[in-house]
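=== RUN LOG ===
request id: a7f3
mode: sequence -> structure
chains: 1
length: 314
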Amino acid sequence: MSTARDRRRFLLPGRMVDIGGRRLHLLESGDGRPAVILEAGIAASSLNWTGLQAQLARYARVCSYDRAGLGWSDPAGSPRAISRAVEDLHALLTAVQVPPPFITMGHSYGGLLLRCYAAKYPDHVAGLVLLDPLAAGEWLRPSEAQWKLLKRGSMLSRRGAQLARFGVVRFGLWMLSSGLRLIPKLVARMASSESGESAISRLVREVQKMPPETWPIVQAHWCQPKSFLTMANYLESLPSSALEASTCTDLPAHIPITILSASNSSAAQLAERDAIARQSLHGQHIIAAKSGHWIHFDEPELVLQAVRDMAALQ
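=== RESULT ===
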């Protein structure tokens, strides 16, 4: 009943596109070439780009979408290896006839995905803008601690799906967004079996960086079991995705690359991103001094300028 009410409250902002038996939600705005394609982080949806998309649409056709299992899109019908996500994106852009080449911009996991897309479809990519991108090397050979983190994240996500089915997630998110903390802490203990911070409270903190009008919609999406099951699927597929992505390292030198790194990036992350930028004849690596991981929220003007500069190279 609550899910049906959410569908009536939060109407589809874009359109559903069939990519061969499954539908992905696509939001388009603006006009102009080259088009700009936005790829969100591992658990994020098109809503993650709300403010930035409106700004970019002033001078370009902009497309954001929800990967399978997230936002308004249909559930994923297969494991979420990064190669499948690349093919989903290609099928989507082909179906709606976005004229290549286009500028692609990805955050975190989305940056890793777009590097793989550019490696497979170099003629379709006019440039890459990567926001604090996930590096394949970070998960190529997971340490024991990383394996434990993945297993725990997957377990909590699947437990979150169970709680979502009984409305516990909906109740906890409502209490957190209302500023009432005691009961959500109890919900967190139910979800994690520990007193530590739960996935629910982390989601709320991240959502609060987004425009306020998107908060209830994101909450509604994360009240659905499919969101948690998709997250578990991505986490379980991360090592195999990193292995696939490790073969996408050599991009054509003619593709411009701009990388924006968070101010708290590690030395290893910065070194790897320097190396990626050097692959391009028009490569640059910029540290966003006022930003954490969510650069497009912390310094949106820096991100907008990176896209404008990329478009000027075309």
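=== NOTES ===
Confidence is low (pLDDT under 50) at residues 174-200.
The chain has 14 helices and eight strands.
=== END ===
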